[in-house]
Write a structure and sequence with these properties.
The protein has five helices and two strands. By secondary structure, the protein is an all-alpha fold. Strands 1-2 form a two-stranded parallel sheet. Helix 4 links the parallel strand 1 and strand 2. The radius of gyration is 20 Å and the shape is extended.
Length: about 150
């Protein structure tokens, strides 16, 4: 099974920037209120057909499409692809370091950057969250377990 092409760089996009007058999108004010739930999915709870239709309609356009995979076999295949892709991502040191730069482990990092994923938003159990907060801050540029001052 081939998941992606080889690592030969190819142009993927061409970006042309032109001056524009300032514009504030209506969704800009919603940015501080966004959140991600990284906890486990509740497979025992159905969302319901009408709610799924409404959620799908929110993103329906010529450029974006939501696809719901309900067939158990297709979901298993998708899960296997996601695991294989994740293994490739974490097996790439450059990619792992890039992702780690967004993980904020210490209060200083959280207050300084005001972005990224924190221990509180990582979907850990309450016990793991409390334990992680007791550990030294992580640093993507140091070997595991050394922490940062």
């Amino acid at each position: 099974m081939v998941l992606s092409p080889d690592d030969t760089p190819v142009p993927a996009v061409r970006v042309i920037l032109t001056p524009m007058p300032p514009f504030r999108d209506a969704l800009f004010d919603a940015i501080p209120n966004r959140h991600t739930h990284r906890g486990p999915y509740r497979v025992d709870q159905s969302i319901g057909g009408e709610r799924l239709k409404r959620l799908t309609a929110l993103a329906a356009s010529d450029a974006v499409r939501v696809v719901l995979i309900e067939d158990a076999s297709a979901r298993g295949e998708l899960a296997a692809l996601i695991v294989a892709a994740t293994e490739r991502i974490i097996g790439d040191p450059q990619m792992s370091a890039g992702s780690a730069r967004w993980y904020r482990t210490g209060r200083r990092d959280i207050e300084t950057h005001r972005d990224g994923v924190t221990v509180d938003t990582a979907g850990l159990s309450p016990l793991m969250t409390a334990t992680a907060k007791l550990l030294p801050d992580m640093d993507a540029n140091r070997p595991t377990g050394t922490g940062s001052p």
